[in-house]
Every structure is written in structure tokens, then in C-alpha cells.
Amino acid sequence: MLEMLRPSKPELSRMMGAVTEHSQLLAYLNRIGVVKGDECRACGEDSESLEHYFCHCPAFSQIQSRYFGIDILLARRTYVASAEGN
Ligand SMILES: [Zn+2]
User: Fold this and answer.
1) Residue-wise pLDDT tens digits, 41-59
2) What letter does residue 53 receive in the DSSP assignment?
3) Which residues are placed with Cβ below 5 angstroms of ligand 1, an ion?
């Protein structure tokens, strides 16, 4: 826990990248012209953004469930189905 209060320079750089979305994720690299395309390297279903990684990427659903305490994919499918009237 104390390590979180005094991150190393590389850890601090990664945290700031996540906060500002200036990270190594393809959504950002594509936006600044470093790469072409931003399709998620883990699932290929959406743009590889921070939100996608944390909230929507099916490749990380077990991790999302463990840290957020709910099955995000199930919650999302239920929300979409209810929005579509199913
Ligand atoms: Zn993905």
C-alpha cells in the first residue's frame, strides 16, 4: 500500500498516461499517427481505449469482475437488451 503513495518514475508515467489517456493503447497511438488502426489487440471487437480495457473488453472480463465485483459483460448485455426492449 505504501508503494502506491511513492510510485517509481515508470509507474508514475503509466498512471499519468492512464489518467490523461496518453498511453500505449492503440486509441491514443492511432490518434497521434504512430499506428494505423486502433482495434483492440486483445479481442478485436472495439477501439483499444482505456474505457474499453477497463469496462468492455471481453478478454479481461474475469479481471473486471474480480476488481469491480460484478460481471460487467452480463450487466452490459442486460442493459443493452433492456434498452432494445428484449
Ligand atoms: Zn478488447
Assistant:
1) 999 999 999 888 888 888 8
2) I
3) 40, 42-43, 57
